[in-house]
Design a protein that fits this description.
The complex is a heterodimer of chains A (597) and B (302).
Chain A: E1 14-16, E2 18-26, H1 31-44, E3 48-54, E4 63-71, E5 82-87, H2 90-96, E6 100-109, E7 125-129, H3 131-139, H4 148-159, H5 164-176, H6 180-195, E8 204-206, E9 216-220, H7 221-231, E10 236-239, H8 246-255, E11 262-265, H9 269-281, E12 286-290, H10 292-308, E13 312-318, H11 335-340, E14 349-351, H12 356-373, E15 376-382, H13 383-387, E16 389-393, H14 397-400, E17 440-442, H15 456-476, E18 483-484, E19 488-495, H16 499-511, E20 516-521, E21 523-525, H17 531-535, E22 538-545, H18 556-565, E23 570-574, H19 583-594
Parallel strand pairs in A: 1-8, 2-5, 5-6, 6-7, 10-11, 10-12, 12-13, 13-15, 14-15, 19-20, 19-22, 22-23
Antiparallel strand pairs in A: 2-4, 3-4, 9-16, 14-21, 18-20
Chain B: H1 18-21, H2 34-48, E1 55-59, E2 74-77, H3 83-93, E3 98-104, H4 105-111, H5 113-121, E4 126-132, E5 135-136, E6 142-143, H6 167-174, E7 178-183, H7 187-199, E8 203-209, E9 232-233, H8 244-250, E10 258-264, H9 270-284, H10 290-299
Classes of the chains: A alpha/beta (597), B alpha/beta (302).
GO molecular function (chain A): 2-oxoglutarate synthase activity
Protein name (chain A): 2-oxoglutarate ferredoxin oxidoreductase subunit alpha
GO biological process, one term (chain A): response to oxidative stress
């Protein structure tokens, strides 16, 4: 909302391209709901949107925020600073007034604050509104604390001149499933907020969005991952509840029966991965998932899947670690665990989606790669991606749908479960063996027929067989697309949910005269061949990651790149505050490295 | 995911013989009780005549868990303690196959102890044979969860001090729907127990005392008549196999205790309950294609 900040008495709304609105309250105030409504509205009005929320890791109560970044152009990040802050309580005001930009607008509830509580330092415009009493007045009865979120939504709708009819439609569909009085009260509160005279404050209106509006949907990352898995042909699997993974298993549990499948809640993470390997051994594309602590527990079985060459998908929604760490914060510190976290040499494929939409496509790719290379594929999502809402074009299912298949064809007489000159293709139970010899999948080192073998030569050959699959894949992978300059001062390298902030940062640095480019690694293990030559086009290579810079000063991706390319120009910008990168953090970090010799 | 398993076997194209079922020569020590278990299992399968390709043998880690290598059937040799959840994944996703799990007391009652509880309470359709030798044999004589107090091992050189697990009571508490106890030296009885277990529609477990001649010789002399012990069978005209309390009582002392079926009830399997949910869910969808179901889901997100 860069255009105007001072109050204007003009009645014509100021047009703007984007705005960041932060709602701050407690977790039971329903601010997630209204944030979600705004995000869905954006999806339907060709606006771009990205949301950001914090939830306390306690069971109920506690401060919580929902931030919505709405824009008529590309929205790549959740917003460094808010243009508007809606504070439900005094503590919300005190904790979040610092996130409001200079000259921004703050709406606060007069029930919990007086003029003496306000901080006028940075030219912030304060508007006191009786959220609580006005809601009680509108809805009637003793509904204190209930419905004030809807009052606020109505008020925001009026201030930003949003499409009221569409917004009410979204609200009605949401509440329509519940008791009639719930919807009636919600709409009463909404109308009261919409009609409330906020006084001498500017009104805004978004310029029309550029994105085509016909088939746009809004969803969070876990939803898109789940639907991507279904489209990829997944029908079976098992998991154990853990934040922020659980919503994927909850949805699979309810959705898969529609497709004839079963999702099992296991007794623990070890059982979950074992059941999933069982379904995969039985011939299905199967999926387990977890967050960091659960991935640690699955590691022995994942090593088995590498050894026995069982294809399966493992989703890891990363959160702050180690140990229980920060269960509701974002971090990218499971990269090394995903790649190397089993004993022995146990190669597997590791992928990471770049945004919410990509969660769908990465699930499809994971399914294809697991089947093609007959090995585990780990998808590294993260807490930020899991819960934030974005709007994008609906996937074309006619193009992407994968029909699940169970191949029970009779296997020829010369069938070998572990051929040295080809990728393993298991014969699942139910498949007849023309030669009369039935196969066994095993975690012991084995010969081509699956017989246990302690032969030094066989272990060397089989280790190479399992590794060479990934070497082959690395040669097939395309080099990542470069955003910005294809040669110059610095190449910014990222992976996972930092895609948007890195792209925006590079755009900003270029507008300030720097010659910089960015690439995003979707394939983290193996990485595409040829990255080294690409890096040579820049003076500096900067890996931006949400993990610790470690003992030697390099984050996890930077460490991997330095080890594989032996390129001393590779540097790191890391952080571990449990929050997504802000644009200025990346710009400052990269500029600092560029000023080095 | 029907419960087709307890219906009579489909006619096999070729008769399933011991010869067809035999794979590698077992690597067990001469005199090991597990040889008898293997031979009786061949015999029961010959009798049941399931289609060869629909038999799956699953195991974790241990001497007895080498079992799948000696069976010429589809097989999977998994990691220590996790054979049951793996077999659960096969059973739930493949109603057309017969799932058999083999393992020892360490796999079943120690490292995999919790999985036994959950596979049992979920009543997963499979048959689990626990070859109990009261000792860790593959790792050369450490105390096992069923070693009796006083048993001298490399980890308890002055004699085991921890109360052993009572397998029958453990299984009863877990919710298993078929629980039997047999002895590798009593082949006729073992055969009867295996057959009844396999034909049970639900989670069926047979604990089979199987002597480790290398590290716990004489462990089962008290239940071996030719060594002066007694092999007392459960009289099912006196013991109601559906009476859980009576089964608990009967399991009070297993040294040597009784042999036979302690408990058997019919409770819906998870396999059947999941299938029921699938059928009910799908019947509401009116036969639209799977792709259409997902398309509609996306439409609702617009």
């Amino acid at each position: 909302m860069s255009s105007v900040s001072a109050p204007s008495s003009s009645s014509a709304p100021t047009s703007l391209r984007n705005a960041v609105i932060r709602f701050a309250g407690n977790s039971q105030d329903g601010i997630q709901s209204i944030g979600g409504f705004l995000a869905r509205l954006a999806g339907r009005t060709a606006q771009e949107v990205m949301t950001y929320m914090t939830i306390p890791s306690t069971i109920s109560g506690g401060p919580s925020i929902f931030q919505v970044h709405l824009g008529s152009g590309e929205v790549l990040h959740e917003g460094d600073e808010a243009d508007v802050l809606v504070a439900f309580y005094k503590h919300s005001y005190q904790n979040h007034i610092g996130s409001l930009r200079k000259g921004g607008i703050c709406f606060y509830d007069t029930a919990d604050m007086t003029a003496e509580d306000l901080n006028h330092d940075r030219g912030i415009i304060h508007i006191g509104v009786p959220f609580t009493s006005a809601t009680v007045e509108a809805v009637g009865g003793s509904t204190r604390d209930r419905g004030k979120n809807m009052f606020v939504l109505g008020m925001v709708c009026a201030v930003f001149n949003l499409d009221k009819e569409k917004l009410v439609g979204i609200v009605s569909r949401q509440f329509g499933r519940k008791d009639e009085s719930v919807l009636r009260n919600a709409l009463l509160a909404f109308d009261a907020g919409f009609a409330y005279q906020v006084g001498d404050v500017e009104k805004f209106s978004f310029v029309p969005g550029e994105a085509p509006g016909s088939h746009r949907i809004s969803a969070d990352g876990n939803q898109m991952m789940t639907l991507g898995l279904i489209a990829a042909g997944v029908r079976y699997g098992s998991a154990y509840p853990i934040t922020p993974w659980s919503s994927i298993m909850e949805t699979l549990r309810v959705e898969l029966p529609k497709y004839g499948g079963i999702y099992v809640q296991a007794e623990d993470e070890l059982a979950a991965v074992a059941m999933t390997i069982g379904a995969a051994f039985a011939g299905h594309l199967a999926i387990t998932g977890s967050a960091g602590p659960g991935l640690s527990l699955k590691m022995e079985a994942l090593g088995y899947a590498s050894m026995a060459e069982i294809p399966l998908i493992v989703v890891n929604v990363q959160r702050g670690g180690p140990s229980t760490g920060l269960p509701t914060s974002v971090e990218q510190s499971d990269l090394m665990q995903a790649i190397y976290g089993s004993h022995g040499d146990s190669p597997r494929i590791v992928l990471a989606p770049k945004d919410v939409e990509d969660c769908f496509y990465i699930a499809l790719e994971a399914g294809k790669l697991a089947k093609k290379y007959s090995c585990p594929v780990i998808i590294l999502s993260d807490q930020a991606l899991s819960s934030r809402i974005e709007a994008f074009e609906e996937p074309d299912l006619d193009k992407h749908w994968v029909e699940p298949e169970l191949d029970l064809a009779t296997r020829p007489a010369d069938f070998k479960p572990y051929p040295l000159d080809a990728i393993t293709r298991h014969a699942p139970p139910g498949a007849k063996m023309a030669g009369g010899k039935y196969p066994i999948a095993t975690g012991l080192e084995h010969d081509e027929m699956g017989h246990p073998s302690g032969s030094p030569k066989m272990h060397t050959l089989m280790t190479a067989k399992r590794r060479n699959k990934l070497v082959q894949l690395s040669k097939e992978l395309p080099l990542p697309e470069i955003h910005g300059d294809t040669t110059g001062d610095a190449l910014v390298v990222g992976w996972g949910s930092t895609f948007g902030p890195i792209k925006e940062s590079v755009t900003r640095m270029r507008s300030e005269g720097h010659k910089v480019g960015a690439i995003h690694l979707r394939h983290l293990h193996p990485m595409p061949a040829g990255l080294g030559d690409l890096f040579k086009q820049y003076k500096h290579v900067v890996c931006v990651e949400m993990n610790d810079s470690g003992l030697y000063g390099y984050g996890q991706l930077a460490t991997l790149l330095r080890a594989s390319l032996a390129d001393p120009r590779i540097q790191s910008v890391c952080k571990t505050d449990g929050l997504a990168f802000r644009i200025r953090e990346i710009v400052t970090g990269v500029e600092k490295i560029m000023t080095q010799a | 995911m029907s419960t087709a398993i307890d219906t009579p076997a489909a006619p096999a194209t070729e008769k399933l013989t011991k010869k067809a079922l035999t794979a590698d020569h077992p690597t067990w020590c001469p005199g090991c009780g597990d040889f008898a278990v293997l031979n009786i299992f061949y015999r029961v399968l010959e009798k049941l005549q399931y289609p060869h390709e629909n038999i799956v043998c699953v195991a974790g880690i241990g001497c007895s868990s080498r079992f799948p290598y000696f069976m010429n059937t589809h097989g999977i040799h998994f990691i220590h303690g996790r054979a049951l959840p793996l077999a659960t994944g096969i059973s739930l996703s493949r109603p057309d196959v017969h799932v058999f799990v083999f393992g020892g007391d360490g796999d079943g009652f120690s490292i995999g102890g919790n999985h036994l509880n959950h596979a049992a309470r979920k009543n997963i359709k499979l048959t689990y044979v626990i070859m109990d030798n009261f000792v860790y044999g593959l790792t050369k004589k450490q105390t096992s969860p069923t070693s009796p107090i006083g048993f001298k091992s490399k980890t308890d050189p002055t004699g085991s001090i921890d109360r052993p697990i009572n397998p029958m009571r453990q299984l009863l508490a877990s919710g298993a729907t078929f629980i039997a106890r047999t002895h590798a030296a009593q082949v006729k009885h073992m055969e009867a127990m295996f057959e009844r277990a396999i034909l049970h529609d639900g989670f069926s477990v047979v604990e089979c005392l199987s002597e480790c001649v290398m590290f716990y010789s004489g462990a089962f002399d008290d239940s071996t008549p030719r060594k002066g012990g007694t092999y007392e069978l459960i009289d099912e005209t006196q013991h109601d196999v559906t009476d859980e309390t009576a089964a608990f009582k009967m399991a009070e002392n297993l040294a040597p205790g009784k042999f036979g079926v302690y408990y058997q009830v019919n409770r819906p399997t998870k396999n059947a309950l999941e299938q029921k949910w699938i059928d009910e869910t799908q019947s509401k969808l009116g036969g639209v294609s799977q792709k259409e179901i997902l398309k509609k889901r996306f439409e609702a997100m617009r």
